[in-house]
Amino acid sequence: NSPITSTTISFAGLFLGPGSDEYLQLLREKNFRYYPLRQPSGQLLTVMQNMEPENLVVAPNGRTAYVSLPKNNAIARLNLETNQVSTVFPLGNRSWTDYYLDPSDNDGVVSM
User: Which phi and psi angles does 103 have, rounded to 5°?
Assistant: First the structure.
C-alpha cells in the first residue's frame, strides 16, 4: 500500500444550489474572473469546470490547504477533513495609475 492517497475536491458546495448565483456575483464584483468558455459540443462550461488550480500549500495543522486559482484571480481555502472548498478569496484589482511604466523597446530602455 502506498502512503499517498488521492481524492477529488469539489467546488460544488459553493457554486450549486441556493445562493450560488449571488455568491458568484459577489466574487465577480471583487474581480474574480470567470470566462464563459464552451466545450467542443457548444455547451457552456460551468464555473466549477472553469477553475484551474495550480499551486497548493498545506497549513501547519494539516487540516486546511490553500490553492491558487491564477486564471480566476483567486485563492481557494480547502477543508482537508471534509474535502470541500470552504471559501474562495478573490484577489481584487491593482491600480497602476500612480506608477509610470514604459515597457517599449523603441528607445532601448525600459523606464519605470
Answer: -85, 0
Query: What's the grid cell of residue 95?
Result: 491600480
* DSSP for the chain, written as a single string: --S------BSHHHHSSTTHHHHHHHHHHTT------B-TTSPBPPTGGG-----EEE-TTSSEEEEEEGGGTEEEEEETTTTEEEEEEE------TT---B---TTS--B-
Closest alpha carbon to 64 in 53, 80, 75: 80
Question: Does residue 68 contact residue 3 with C-beta atoms inside 8 Å?
Answer: no
Model confidence pTM above 0.70:
yes
The string of pLDDT tens digits covering residues 8-36 is 888 888 888 899 999 999 999 999 998 87
- Answer yes or no: is pLDDT of 96 > 70: no
Are the beta carbons of 111 and 101 closer than 8 angstroms? yes
How much is the CA Rg of the chain, to the nearest whole Å?
A: 19
